[in-house]
Amino acid sequence: MFNSSINFLVQSIEKSMVIEENNMFYQKFDNFFGKEMLEHINLEIDSLEKEKLMNQTNTEREKSKDSQKLIKELMILFSHASVRNCLGQKYKMNFRLSSLDIWYDYPGYFLLPHVDNDSIKMSMQIYLGKDTQPGTVLFDSLDATKYFDKFEFKYNSGYSMLHSGSSFHGVEYPVKQGVRKSLYVRYR
């Protein structure tokens, strides 16, 4: 399963062009995972043990615990040289996998425009829920009230984004019902 999943991931990254807008560099993905890997994730996602994120203990967000088998498998997948090299060619830099979580955002969760921690060079978020949830939006400043682009919350879609001092992003609107599930991958 891993070889076909790695190949599918590389193809998903290769076919998505890098967009440059408002001093931001990012990709949009559709049909990111192949059928086999997606089915594997779906079998496990609702039974994973969860915990609060560091620096987000007062929010309506939990993450999967790192010690679980699925998380370790995904770490192997996203740290594979083929995946990292493909991302490196797209963004013209070298990447090393830093961490990976499955996020569970509950009703009331919301995140205003912000820039991620300086330790993150590039991140990737893949939406894993099939329900209607807020997407991720891009802003041209910290105090912007309107976004200039949006990553729709759509099953097996998402984005990668190079981080800089101007990579302002947030959640489109607060989670209203259900659970907003996504995979979040960080590279340094």
SSE topology string:
HEEHEEHHEEEEEEE
CATH topology value: Jelly Rolls
Biggest sheet, spatial arrangement of strands: 1-2-9-6-11-5-4-3
Give the domain tally: 1
Write the CATH homologous superfamily.
Answer: q2cbj1_9rhob like domain
Structural class: alpha+beta
Number of alpha- plus pi-helical segments: 4
Q: What CATH architecture would you give? A: Sandwich
| Average pLDDT for all residues | 94
CATH class call: Mainly Beta
Helical residue percent?
Answer: 10-25%
Structural Rg: 16 Å
Q: State the end-to-end CA separation.
A: 27 Å
Q: What can be said about the biggest beta sheet?
A: 8 strands, antiparallel
Which ranges are low-confidence, i.e. pLDDT below 50, for 5 or more consecutive residues? none
Explain the overall architecture.
The protein has 188 residues and is of the alpha+beta class. It has a single domain (2-187), classed as q2cbj1_9rhob like domain (Jelly Rolls, Sandwich), CATH 2.60.120. Helices cover 24% and strands 29% of the residues. The protein is built from 4 helices and 11 strands. The chain has helices spanning 2-14, 35-44, 69-79, 81-91; strands at 19-21, 24-29, 50-52, 61-64, 97-105, 122-127, 136-139, 149-151, 158-162, 168-171, 180-187. The strands form 2 sheets. Strands 1-2-9-6-11-5-4-3 form an 8-stranded antiparallel sheet, with helices on one face. A hairpin with a 2-residue loop joins strand 1 and strand 2 (24-29). The protein starts with a helix and ends with a strand.
